[in-house]
Amino acid sequence: MAQKLRGVRSLLVITGAGVSAESGISTFRGAGGFWEKFRAEELASPEGFRRDPELVWRWYHERRQALLENQPNPGHFALAELETLIPDFTLVTQNVDGYHRQAGSRNIVEIHGSIWELRCTREGKIWEDHLPLQVLPVYCSCGALARPNVLWFGEVYDGERMRKAQAAAARAELIVVAGTSGMVWIVSGLLQVHRGEVIEVNLEPTDLTTQADLLLQGPSGQVFPRLLDLMNTTEGE
């Protein structure tokens, strides 16, 4: 596998929640506590936001706080270093936590947006804010409500991000899928336009495994650093 990566000139990596779970970040289903009584659609949808923007912002505020209290794991950093070794490298992530950017990844498509970006519901203005939120809900300087700039249930993917992701999938010699499965629409959609090999990195086999050419079973925070070490060792020989 390490030798295969060394020979690849165009690589697409797709990451999902499993990659950030190793940083101690729980998925919605595993959020626990107070939020267990809510359905995801109540907290991550335009309808839920219109109904109770303060409740939605409280949830996102807690998620942001959890991210500030944790950090990218070795898998994030290994992917950032891998980017420097592949001439044409694209990272498409379903995660909104910003950990890939924090770890140093540059050519990245945050297909579901970023929890650190806010968007004005009136003017569409977008800005970044990494500081703890002091007042909830959050308002834009124009006086209108602001919302997290993330993809919610019932919304369509950003066209420019989709075009970039599809173009990367079409030209990639190899796609590596980590911490997610083929049941996720964005993964299955990108694999449909891909004509090369597919490698899966997951803790256990998924519905994607039968489509993949190879399954590397284990935590991505261990698999990617190990691959990087092997690549560097082979290169030095």
How would you describe this protein?
- GO terms for molecular function: histone deacetylase activity, NAD-dependent; NAD+ binding; protein-malonyllysine demalonylase activity; protein-succinyllysine desuccinylase activity.
- This is NAD-dependent protein deacylase.
- Its EC number is 2.3.1.286.
- NAD-dependent lysine deacetylase and desuccinylase that specifically removes acetyl and succinyl groups on target proteins. Modulates the activities of several proteins which are inactive in their acylated form.
- It catalyses: N(6)-succinyl-L-lysyl-[protein] + NAD(+) + H2O = 2''-O-succinyl-ADP-D-ribose + nicotinamide + L-lysyl-[protein]; N(6)-acetyl-L-lysyl-[protein] + NAD(+) + H2O = 2''-O-acetyl-ADP-D-ribose + nicotinamide + L-lysyl-[protein].
- The chain has helices spanning 2-7, 17-21, 40-43, 46-51, 53-69, 74-83, 99-103, 159-171, 185-192, 220-236, and strands spanning 10-15, 88-93, 108-110, 113-120, 126-128, 146-150, 174-178, 197-202, 214-217.
- It is α/β, with parallel strands linked by helices.
- The chain folds into two domains: 1-25 and 72-112 and 157-237, 3-Layer(aba) Sandwich (Rossmann fold), CATH 3.40.50.1220; 26-69 and 116-150, SIR2/SIRT2 'Small Domain' (2-Layer Sandwich).
- The strands form two sheets. It has a six-stranded parallel beta sheet with strand order 3-2-1-7-8-9. It has a three-stranded antiparallel beta sheet with strand order 5-4-6, covered by helices on one side.
- Helix 9 links the parallel strand 7 (174-178) and strand 8 (197-202).
- Helix 6 runs parallel beside helix 10.
- The longest helix is centred in the first third of the chain and has 17 residues, at 53-69.
- The chain is elongated.
- The model has no long low-confidence stretch (mean pLDDT 92).
